[in-house]
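We emphasize that the prediction below concerns an isolated chain of 175 residues; any contacts that depend on oligomerization or on bound cofactors are therefore not represented. The input was used exactly as deposited, without trimming of termini.
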Amino acid sequence: MLGERERDGDARDGLVADVGMQARFECALDEADFAPCSAAASHRPAVSLADGKHTLRVRAVDQAGNADPTPARVTFTVDTKAPNVTLTKKPKGRLQAKGSRARARFAFRASERPVRFECALAGKGVPKRQRRFRRCSSPLTLKLKPGKYTFKVRARDAAGNLDRSPARHRLRVVG
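Result of the prediction step, given as a token string:
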């Protein structure tokens, strides 16, 4: 219940919330009407949410039915789709080494932004650390000794969704 505040017997202007007030809560998701909800720390909708932006509003309603005119609101994005990576530039399948190495140039992009790219290179004589996916960026130039290689690149979006089918390119460097 809202009421006037008194201090030391003098009435002061202002409204304060009664500490003993019993309130109920109402929630509204996106453009839906407010409906009763619990004061629990999380709110789970009865249906799955589509990918995209959503807004949850929560308001208190006192025993007299007065609803908070300025509900708390949080906007969030649901993202369940993994990005897809495309190689936009790649070397020919066979490269001639100039000296002891050949330069293999790659460029790639993802189907969404922002993403973090991760690259891996497989082939005989490739150090273990390069065989595992690790952070990389586009464009990327690799200096390769003669041999057969497979270059792979994948992306992870801001929601943590990981591209499960990395873009790949096989090549052979000849000396």
